Each structure stands twice: as structure tokens, then as C-alpha cells.
Amino acid sequence: MISGFFVLLVASGFQGSFGLGMKNYRPFSWEAFWVVFSVIGILCFPILWTSLEVPHFATYIWATPSSVLWVAAACGFLWGVSAIWYGKSIDYIGLSLTVGINTGVGCSLGALIPLFILNDLPSTNSMVILLLGMAVMLVGVGVITKAGLLKDKQGKTDASVTLNEKFMVGLLFALISGFGTAAINVGYSYAHTASDLAVAAGVNPVSASLIAYVIVFASGGFLANVIYALYILFKNKSYDDFTKKGAGFAYFKAILTGALWFAALGLYGKSAALLGDLGTVIGWIVFLSLALVISNFWGIKTGEWKGFKKPLRVMNIGNAILLISVIIVGYANSLA
């Protein structure tokens, strides 16, 4: 139990921190950073980790019906598009606002949409509480969005604050990127067919769960991200970023960002298993809540809210509402 909570804390720390690299990628351009992040984080790292724990994992993928793989890959592609919006949003409006809005929208859609698509509706009591949690979560998103609007308004009227002309675009990207969470959940549910085959063959269930991530991320998810990043790279002719002065440290940041991103998911899965019956309820609540708190800490620490006292207060209220909603949704899941 103790080891499970320790792994969960590490996973939450990674989840709340990986976005730092997405806002501090110099001397790379955004597109150069995203190419490296896509290749390392979305393609290589999931495959490497899975191959270490399940050496013949490809066998179970080939044994999965192609129709299932195509749906999972398509969901991965949709997530890939939303991941680009997420990265752009961090670049435009900062880590804390992006994570808060994305978490709220993503959790709402991610918990609700797959239930209807997969026709796996919970009991009436659980469903009522789940919908209540979703409603509270959307209120939290609305409050955090209000904080962002207040920040943008102050930035336009306060001469001491640098005007951010891309703020509204970033806010929109943060909102719509939440749809990617629902795509991941649906895709993962389909891809878990391969994981089930591995479990039936005697593979540890925790290790086998990694196979579903490979199917979703290393197929459509990778293609969406790397194709767009390469398109912008050649459009802007910024491919010389890979050899410019200081590129070594930029490579390090991109690789570390990719490693932390997938490690957060992989370690969360392990912590849920180590926590036993508490894993899918308490573990999920702690994971999301602590990641949200940590991302806000980094946002404040890096000066995202310097000079914005009122918007910061509103954002903190919104985050508190989100934390309450996560607890409600966790309780609903325990009744399912």
C-alpha cells in the first residue's frame, strides 16, 4: 500500500511538471521541439518501456482484429490533434491555465462520452452522482476560463504588463484540447483487446496494459503530431535549429519532457494496481488533484501570474471547484 502511494506521488509529479518543457523550449523553435518530443515521447518511449516488460508484445497486437486496431488508431489520431492544441495553449497562455481548463473539460468528456459509445452505462445512483460531478467540473472550468479572461483584459489595459496577442487563441486551444481525453479513453478501451490477449497468455495485467497505450499513441497519435510538426518545420525552414548553438540542452529538455509525459501514465497504471481496490478511485482522485496543484505551483513559480492578483484568486477558486468535482466523480466510480 505504501509503495503504491509513493509511485502515485511520483506519477502525479511527472503529470504536473512535464508541461514545463513545452513553455521553455529555446533555443529550439516550437516545431523543432515538437518533432523531438513526438519521436521520443509518443513513439520510442512507449515502445521501449512496453518491450522491456512484455518482450513479445507485438504478437498480441497482430492477433487483435484489424477493425479494433483501426478504431484505436483513429482515436489516437484525434488525441494527437488535441495534443498539438494543448502544447500550443501552454506556449500561448501558460501551464496553470492550460492544465486547469484541459483537466476539467477532459475529465468531463472522458468520463461521460465513452460510457455511451461503448454502451457501458453504470447504475442509476452512480450515473446521477457522475452527472453531478460533471456539472460541478464544468462550473470549475467556467471559473478558470473567467480567470483567463480577466487576465487578458488586465493585460490589455495595464501598461506595466506585456500584451499577449495570442491569449484568446490559447484559451480556445485549451478548451478544445480536452476532447482528446475522451478520444484516449475510447481508443484505450478498444486497444485493451490486445492487452486482454496478453493477460490470457500469462502476462502480468499491469504490464499488459502498456500494450494498449502503444496502439493508441504510437500509431495515429504519433502520426498526427510528427506530420504537423514537420510541416511547420519545413514551412518555416527552421530545420537548422537541430544544429544551432545550445541545441544540446534543447534536445535534453525535449527528451525529458517526452519521458516524463509517458512515465506519468505508466506509473499511474502501476500505482493503481499496487493500491488494490483503492487504485481506480482514490488513486485517480489523487493523481488528477495533485497534478493540478503541482502545475499551478510551476505556473506561479515561473511568473505566469505576476501582476495578476485578482485573476489568480479567481483561478484558485476554479481549481478548488475542480478538486471537489474530481472527488464527486471518484465517489460515483466507486458505486459503479
Automatic annotation (TrEMBL):
Cellular component terms per the entry's GO annotation: membrane
Coiled coil: none
InterPro entries reported for this sequence: L-rhamnose-proton_sym_RhaT (IPR004673)
Keywords: Cell inner membrane, Cell membrane, Membrane, Sugar transport, Symport, Transmembrane, Transmembrane helix, Transport
A Pfam entry, by short name: RhaT
TM annotation in the entry: 6-25, 32-49, 69-86, 93-117, 129-149, 169-190, 210-234, 246-269, 281-300, 312-332
One of the record's GO molecular function terms: symporter activity
Protein name: Rhamnose/proton symporter RhaT
Organism: Oceanidesulfovibrio marinus
Top-level taxonomy: Bacteria, Pseudomonadati, Thermodesulfobacteriota, Desulfovibrionia, Desulfovibrionales
